[in-house]
């Protein structure tokens, strides 16, 4: 699939993706809730349970956007670093959640020391990073030995009726909704494409293994529309 000037294509050039999310920042969380019919809140709850944050732990929330995914981790007393490469998202997050630490960072070159975090996590952001294995490798580098990674990402539906509905929904409904509610509707065409082109659960799990993560496991949510992968260093 080719890249268009107005759209971050599947080559995911960092500046295009950054620009796209900068424009979406003020309404991004609302749009996600609308697009998923609210089920994103259930997915977030399951992801938080998979991370299992503990008081005093250092946790990196990568592609944290406005920090919505970081808040439940901080609530239990973990020291959360919300990291993103969109200045617009970070600015919005600092306004909403001044209690959180927000840091600018590129997922392929994280600005943190080796062995810094007890856990690292990323929700619906891994597919927007230009090099998936480089990002997983960087997350491995900054995780302490014995630490864990949790990745929530759109995936491949496992049930035929959901597969068929999903094929219709992604290319048609998401961009159509984007035109109605978004200040940057081309972003939602990109999001639909990036979800459709993403590796399935097993193939993504193999990428974890390739860069050194151990005991990789995954859980399908909503018939495989989303998968939560977890592994250990």
From TrEMBL:
CDD domains: AdoMet_MTases (cd02440). InterPro entries: SAM-dependent_MTases_sf, UbiE/COQ5_MeTrFase, UbiE/COQ5_MeTrFase_CS. The keyword Methyltransferase applies. Its EC number is 2.1.1.163. It catalyses: a 2-demethylmenaquinol + S-adenosyl-L-methionine = a menaquinol + S-adenosyl-L-homocysteine + H(+). Signal peptide: none annotated. GO terms for molecular function: methyltransferase activity. S-adenosyl-L-methionine binds at residues 66, 84, 106-107, 123. Keywords: Menaquinone biosynthesis, Methyltransferase, S-adenosyl-L-methionine, Transferase. It comes from the Bacteria. GO terms for biological process: methylation. SUPFAM superfamilies: S-adenosyl-L-methionine-dependent methyltransferases. Pathway: Quinol/quinone metabolism; menaquinone biosynthesis; menaquinol from 1,4-dihydroxy-2-naphthoate: step 2/2. It is an enzyme of class 2 (transferase). Belongs to the class I-like SAM-binding methyltransferase superfamily. MenG/UbiE family. Methyltransferase required for the conversion of demethylmenaquinol (DMKH2) to menaquinol (MKH2). This is Demethylmenaquinone methyltransferase. It comes from Glutamicibacter ardleyensis. The lineage of its organism: Bacteria, Bacillati, Actinomycetota, Actinomycetes, Micrococcales.
């Amino acid at each position: 699939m080719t890249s268009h000037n107005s759209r971050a294509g599947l080559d995911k050039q960092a500046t295009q993706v950054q620009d796209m999310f900068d424009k979406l920042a003020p309404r991004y969380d609302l749009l996600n809730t609308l697009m998923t019919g609210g089920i994103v809140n259930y997915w977030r709850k399951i992801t938080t349970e998979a991370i299992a944050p503990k008081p005093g732990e250092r946790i990196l929330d990568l592609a944290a956007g406005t920090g919505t995914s970081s808040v439940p981790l901080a609530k239990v007393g973990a020291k959360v670093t919300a990291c993103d490469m969109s200045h617009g998202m970070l600015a919005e997050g600092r306004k909403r959640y001044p209690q959180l630490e927000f840091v600018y960072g590129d997922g392929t070159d994280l600005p943190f020391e080796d062995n810094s975090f007890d856990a690292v996590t990323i929700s619906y952001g891994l597919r927007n990073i230009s090099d998936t294995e480089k990002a997983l490798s960087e997350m491995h580098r900054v995780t302490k030995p014995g630490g864990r990674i949790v990745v929530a990402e759109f995936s491949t539906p496992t049930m035929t009726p959901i597969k068929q509905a999903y094929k219709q929904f992604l290319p048609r409904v998401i961009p159509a909704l984007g035109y109605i509610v978004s200040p940057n509707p081309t972003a939602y065409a990109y999001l639909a494409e990036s979800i459709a082109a993403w590796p399935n659960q097993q193939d993504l799990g193999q990428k974890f293994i390739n860069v050194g993560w151990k005991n990789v496991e995954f859980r399908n949510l909503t018939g495989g529309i989303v998968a939560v992968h977890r592994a250990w260093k």
